[in-house]
Design brief:
119 residues; 30% helix; alpha/beta
Length: 119
């Protein structure tokens, strides 16, 4: 069997849903994002960790460092082959840069986001 991929969700537009009279709000947990792509389960085991579910502008440096600590911890697990972070676009670049500076693992880390909500 293939190595496990871990998805850490942080919120952002990729996890937002349109709610009547409230507009677009963080609504979808990480596991719902994965369930939206059923063929993933045919490729490799996927584990989802919900780090946060916030709009991207609310991601501040203290949270980014906490995320980096979590990413490092998860990547130390032997069964984990790589990691994906779902994130909002507003602070994606800053988070990616910080992770690049502080993550010690050589395993792949991918950040992904969306410009439109799930609805």
């Amino acid at each position: 069997m293939a190595e496990k991929i871990v998805v850490i969700s942080t919120g952002g537009t990729i996890a937002m849903k349109e709610v009547a009279e409230q507009g677009v709000i963080p609504e979808l947990a990480g596991n719902k994002l994965i369930e939206a792509v059923p063929p993933l389960s045919n490729i490799c085991p996927v584990e989802v960790i919900e780090f946060s579910n916030i709009p991207s502008p609310h991601m501040h440096p203290k949270m980014m460092f906490a995320l980096a600590k979590l990413v490092d911890k998860v990547l130390k697990r032997k069964e984990v082959g790589g990691l994906v972070v779902t994130h909002g676009t507003d602070t994606l670049e800053e988070t990616a840069y910080l992770l690049d500076l502080v993550i010690s693992s050589q395993k792949p880390v991918c950040l992904t986001a969306a410009m439109r909500s799930s609805t």
